[in-house]
Amino acid sequence: MRALTVVPGRPGSVQVGEVADPVAGRGELLVDGVALGICGTDREIVRGRYGAAPAGEERLVLGHESLGRVRAAPEGSGFAPGDLVVGVVRRPDPEPCGACAHGEFDACRNGRFTERGIKGLHGYGSEQWTVEADYAVRLDPSLEEVGVLLEPASVVAKAWEQIERIGSRSWFDPRRLLVAGAGPIGLLAALLGMQRGLEVHVLDRVERGVKPELVAGLDAAYHTGGLAEAAARIAPDVVVETTGAPRLVLDAITANAPYGIVCLVGLSADRTRVPVAAGALNREIVLENDAFFGSVNANPRHYALAARALSWADRTWLARLVTRRLPLERAAEAFEERVEDVKTVIDL
Ligand code: BGC
């Protein structure tokens, strides 16, 4: 079968080539790949800046935003041929640390977790793949066209869960949300904010095209320009920063409202140094009971929350998030970054 592979650490090594057909082990599903979403993490791996192949192997099968159809399922697994499934990305560390021992492996404490298509485990970027039934999530058949958005939506569902848990440390009645970045994660964060009845604002550098249209489609407000200025106008109760751009990250932390929560979900690839007035920042954070935190990955509870959020959303709106579809043989094109793109999907 064909698979999308890369040698981690070696830029320019991405290719579509033949690999051995997968064989389902005990308790595993054999799945026909339907589609694969590409995100910033995949681009980082392709640029040689992130990722690790399985122990003893040179190449890593890329891909963690999966969608497939079960071809064969073990008796009693709860799955049947024809089911639409998405594979969970992370597996707990072998030790396991306290978080992994409690099923909260998205919060692994020792960094020895593995991730399909990212760190130490082959991904879902192949014509067929296998997945342990315990790490497969069944999707409503009506979500087939947009099912590839479940993994990014799970990351956002986790972020929202954490925001709400942090907010509930005291009185919490958020009204306004500011999202930095109108990529897939930002737009899904905005969607989940709308579903919570918030007044939603999305900030991006792109001035026209599908991003402002998608924000308008949610009945949210679209802004360009600086985050500090936008935050001063909006006074958001919650900021979700999805770009990882150093300036925006710092502005998000400094410009939030008293008792505001800033959730950082963007991974910075930028090594720019931004000077910080640490003393003034400290005073502001303490005197305003501000909170900022990072959120990554998701466990099966978050996938379930994400599946529910997607099922409530307008399918046409969700489908518009996919701005580019490529056949597997043209997968290399998916890694060219274009600012006007939202989600690029490879058809398997
Ligand atoms: C994935 C997460 C993963 C993270 C870091 C993200 O793109 O969605 O599941 O934990 O990268 O590897």
Detailed description of the structure:
One of its GO terms (molecular function) is metal ion binding. Residues 25-139 form the Alcohol dehydrogenase-like N-terminal domain. InterPro entries: ADH-like_N, Glu_dehyd_C, GroES-like_sf, NAD(P)-bd_dom_sf. Pfam families: ADH_N, Glu_dehyd_C. Keywords: Metal-binding, Oxidoreductase, Zinc. It is a single chain. This protein has 348 residues and is an alpha/beta fold. It folds into two domains: 2-139 and 316-347, Medium-chain alcohol dehydrogenases, catalytic domain (Quinone Oxidoreductase, Chain A, domain 1, Alpha-Beta Complex); 154-294, NAD(P)-binding Rossmann-like Domain (Rossmann fold, 3-Layer(aba) Sandwich), CATH 3.40.50.720. 27% of the residues lie in helices and 24% in strands. It is built from ten helices and 19 strands. It has helices spanning 40-46, 98-101, 150-167, 184-195, 210-217, 227-234, 246-254, 278-287, 300-312, 315-320, and strands at residues 2-6, 15-18, 28-38, 60-61, 65-72, 84-87, 90-91, 114-116, 120-121, 128-132, 136-138, 176-180, 199-203, 221-223, 238-241, 261-264, 291-294, 322-327, 343-347. Strands 3, 5, 6, 10, 11, 18 and 19 form a seven-stranded mixed β-sheet that branches. Strands 14-13-12-15-16-17 form a six-stranded parallel β-sheet, sandwiched between helices. Helix 3 (150-167) crosses helix 9. The longest helix is centred in the middle third of the chain and has 18 residues, at 150-167. The model has no long low-confidence stretch (mean pLDDT 96). Bound molecules: beta-D-glucopyranose. Residues 39, 41, 64, 89-90, 115, 118, 151, 155, 296-297 line the site of beta-D-glucopyranose.
